[in-house]
């Protein structure tokens, strides 16, 4: 039979057997906000070159979908790499990290940065030339051992190490004209699918700016968060010193049985940084009475607050810890977002009026009864905790809105010390593929919520877009107002989290809509060799997500 019935965006359609998703997408494009770049077939992500051979449920993916943005980004990245190679054969484009709404690259010669602003214009022009030519991205399925040999021959040791311990028997590589590459995910069919991007020169490198899912038809304005950029740079340099710049380096340390040393050094770096922050607070020329700790979901804010409190005690202070979570409104009073969902990330979900009343009372030396929020019941308990701020006390306040001026509007700014905490991933998979910070935090949250909050991976995946919207609205706009930033990521943590997150993700079946995202995260984690927990200290930030923390007993 030459025909097959499919359900396309919920409608039954009869199509020719063997038809490609490219062909099917042409008729459907008018119903999408931006260019279709992929499809989900029976809840599994597929490239547009995929052909339909049997009855299937199909929905197309454009740039309003995270998967669509990732595919667009990979494809654009390959075009950038090709343009640099064509213009400067002795240089290499090396991805560094995300920056605001863009991605920062270095252009290297013999491992050293070499780029001027005029060259960025030339690279961008060359990329548009490749796009106009509509050059196809050709996929090659290469046996694993052949891929290893090819990468070694081409001097791509970073990429060889990334696949050295792979359990799959093959590697999917892509070619663009005369170069091949490996991007750990799908691509668009050809360069002509790219229609929006720009490059900007910054700090001897360049920022690649592309559309985002919120506004897929335009390019965002980029304002570089300089403090955050400095943290990324600091930790990349630290990775170089440790000899752990990518996943392959980490896996080699594990295989050589040196992971215990790396864990101890990573934890010592955290402790040193926290101690330095405590010193800065305590020896400030203007005495600080309130420490505000903010950051996005799963950044380890609570453990950081506990560890900072210990360092403050070493310096002679007696900290009083307050969590903003206890000032949540009762669940029935929580505001809803534009999608009609409970918006727990909104400042309006917090009883700001009561919080400020208590804050001012404490600063005057008065006693308050701080509420205690019962998350299972979704409301405050009848009796709270009595607190008074006395001589030698300092308030340590932790919560996602800590840097929002509205939260502490009734308190003088010079009495506050503001800290931004986030898990900023500086390690890469290889020179052309970064580890998104948001993926590290998502895996932390999946692990923690399943173990300690009775929340399934499906629920966490479903909730994550709302969490991200809340961060974009309520946290990231204030991050540069911090007096100091702390990177809570640990260079070894994904190897540890893999053992707990992987089984939970594998419970998601192809019949469930979250299957494609679960498969993506499982594939991502597969590049990290598992790491045992025996060398991790009980006060580690990662123990907040693994369990066994000394602060939660």
Widest sheet: strand order? 2-1-7-4-5
Count the helices. How many? 15
* Main CATH class of the largest domain: Alpha Beta
Corresponding CATH superfamily of the largest domain:
P-loop containing nucleotide triphosphate hydrolases
In the CATH classification, which architecture of the largest domain applies? 3-Layer(aba) Sandwich
Report on this structure.
With 553 residues, the chain is of the alpha+beta class. It has three domains: 60 residues, Beta-grasp domain (Ubiquitin-like (UB roll), Roll); 143 residues, Threonyl-tRNA Synthetase, Chain A, domain 2 (2-Layer Sandwich), CATH 3.30.980; 321 residues, 3-Layer(aba) Sandwich (Rossmann fold). Helices cover 37% and strands 21% of the residues. It is built from 15 helices and 26 strands. Strands 2-1-7-4-5 form a five-stranded mixed sheet. The chain is globular.
Keywords:
five-stranded mixed β-sheet, single chain, 15 helices, alpha+beta, Ubiquitin-like (UB roll), globular, five-stranded antiparallel β-sheet, 553 residues, Rossmann fold, 3 domains, Threonyl-tRNA Synthetase, Chain A, domain 2
Short summary of the structure?
This protein is 37% helix and 21% strand.
Write the layout of secondary structure elements.
Elements: E1 3-8, E2 11-16, E3 19-20, H1 21-28, E4 38-41, E5 44-46, E6 51-52, E7 57-61, H2 66-87, E8 92-99, E9 102-109, E10 112-113, H3 117-132, E11 137-143, H4 144-153, H5 157-163, E12 170-176, E13 179-181, E14 198-202, E15 205-209, H6 226-242, H7 247-255, H8 259-282, E16 290-294, H9 301-314, E17 318-323, H10 352-363, E18 367-370, E19 373-374, E20 379-380, E21 385-388, E22 393-398, E23 416-422, E24 428-430, E25 433-434, H11 437-452, H12 457-474, E26 484-487, H13 493-506, H14 515-525, H15 543-546
Parallel strand pairs: 1-7, 16-22, 16-23, 17-22, 23-26
Antiparallel strand pairs: 1-2, 3-6, 4-5, 4-7, 8-9, 9-10, 9-15, 11-12, 12-13, 14-15, 18-21, 19-20, 24-25
């Amino acid at each position: 039979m030459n025909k097959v019935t499919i359900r396309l965006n919920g409608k039954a359609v009869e199509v020719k057997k063997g038809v490609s998703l490219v062909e099917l997408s042409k008729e459907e494009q008018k119903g999408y906000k931006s260019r279709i770049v992929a499809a989900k077939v029976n809840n599994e992500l597929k490239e547009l070159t995929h052909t339909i051979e049997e009855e299937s449920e199909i929905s197309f993916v454009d740039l309003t979908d995270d998967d669509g943005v990732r595919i667009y980004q990979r494809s654009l990245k390959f075009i950038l790499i090709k343009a640099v190679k064509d213009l400067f054969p002795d240089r290499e484009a090396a991805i560094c990290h995300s920056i605001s709404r863009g991605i920062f690259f270095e252009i290297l010669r013999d491992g050293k940065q070499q780029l001027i602003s005029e060259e960025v214009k030339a690279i961008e022009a060359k990329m548009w030339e490749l796009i106009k030519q509509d050059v196809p991205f050709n996929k090659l399925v290469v046996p694993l051992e052949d891929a290893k040999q090819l990468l070694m021959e081409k001097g791509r040791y970073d990429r060889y190490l990334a696949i050295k311990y792979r359990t799959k028997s093959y590697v999917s590589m892509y070619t663009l004209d005369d170069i091949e590459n490996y991007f750990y995910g799908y691509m668009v069919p050809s360069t002509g699918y790219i229609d929006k991007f720009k490059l900007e020169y910054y700090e001897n490198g360049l920022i690649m700016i592309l559309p985002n899912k919120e506004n897929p038809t335009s390019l965002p304005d980029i304002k570089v968060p300089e403090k955050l950029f400095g943290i990324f740079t600091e930790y990349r340099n630290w990775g170089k010193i440790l000899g752990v710049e990518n996943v392959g380096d980490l896996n080699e340390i594990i295989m050589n049985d040196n992971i215990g040393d790396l864990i101890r050094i990573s934890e010592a770096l955290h402790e040193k940084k926290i101690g330095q922050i405590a010193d800065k607070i305590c020896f400030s020329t203007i005495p600080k009475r309130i420490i505000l700790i903010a950051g996005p979901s799963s950044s380890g804010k609570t453990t950081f607050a506990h560890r900072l409190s210990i360092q403050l005690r070493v310096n002679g202070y007696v900290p009083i810890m307050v969590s903003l979570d206890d000032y949540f409104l009762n669940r029935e009073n929580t505001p809803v977002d534009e999608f009609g969902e409970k918006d727990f990330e909104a400042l309006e979900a917090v009883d700001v009026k009561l919080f400020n009343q208590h804050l001012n009372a404490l600063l005057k030396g008065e006693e308050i009864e701080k509420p205690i929020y019962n998350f299972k019941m979704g409301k405050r308990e009848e009796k709270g905790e009595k607190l008074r701020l006395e001589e030698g006390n300092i308030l340590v306040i932790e919560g996602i809105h800590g840097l929002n001026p509205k939260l502490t509007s009734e308190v003088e700014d010079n009495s506050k010390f503001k800290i931004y905490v986030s898990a900023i991933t500086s390690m890469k998979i290889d020179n052309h593929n970064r580890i998104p910070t948001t993926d590290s935090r998502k895996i932390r949250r999946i692990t923690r919520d399943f173990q300690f909050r009775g929340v399934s991976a499906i629920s966490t995946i479903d909730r994550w877009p709302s969490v991200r919207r809340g961060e974009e609205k309520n946290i990231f706009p204030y991050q540069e107002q911090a007096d100091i930033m702390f990177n809570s990521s640990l260079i070894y943590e994904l190897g540890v989290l893999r053992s707990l997150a992987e089984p939970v993700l594998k419970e998601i079946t192809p019949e469930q809509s979250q299957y494609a995202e679960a498969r993506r995260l499982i594939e991502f984690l597969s590049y990290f060799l598992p790491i045992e927990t025996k060398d991790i200290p009980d006060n580690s930030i990662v123990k907040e997500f693994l369990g066994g923390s000394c602060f939660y007993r």
